[in-house]
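pipeline: protein-struct stage 2 | run 1193 | Anti-sigma K factor RskA C-terminal domain-containing protein
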Amino acid sequence: MNANEYINSGAIEAYIHGLADEADIALQLEMEGRYPEVQAARMALEEQMEQQALQMPLANPAATRERILNALKEEKAHPTKVVAMPTDLKAAPKPIRWFRTALAASVLLLMGSVLLNFYFYSQYTDFSNRYEELSARQNVLANKANALEASMHMIKSPKVQPVVMQGVTGNAGMMATVYYDKSTTDVYLMVNNLPMPQKGKQYQLWAQVDGQMVDAGLLTWTDEAALVKMSRIANAQAFAISLEPEGGSKVPTLTEVKVLGKA
């Protein structure tokens, strides 16, 4: 191992921090004896530590701090150049071989903790999203149930007249029902069997009043609509549904009338 490889290996840092074992200490002393640049690297690192110590607040008394700084300066002024191998290595700092292993283990534990936290957070987010989705669905079903209950209550009222509209010629099988309350003029429409209109078309409800066809509202197509409240109509004698351009028409297109029923 040459000087540059030894300097870059981190052995000098371990020697200064007291983490080297007996063999490492012996190697450090040997490398300093063989290569002046190794000794210079060690002294430079000690100087760097000295500067860091000067910048950090010390809890030791001022006299103790002064003795430490003087000792470091003395070492810099009169460095000991050791060529021979030391005869007594027992006085050298005790090895702490587990330091690097403990550091690596700490890094692995930290990474494991981060990954575990990310996993649990992902699971929490997933469960939270599912809960919100189920809660939204439950609210929709509850609203449908309430609307259906209100519709059934209204349908059963003796004041409400059901008007069944059957398919006209060429539209056999089509059917829709109007629930007409003459006392309040409320009109409700239930689609029993109407095909979904093609794009650009829309179903429109008409009421016959005194021989004239009056617009009773457009049907916004949705599979969820069981009973739709339409426009109020007074004195209706009949109802019909035609397929009109999207947005509706002022008068029904006679050739597009699909169902018809008398009130």
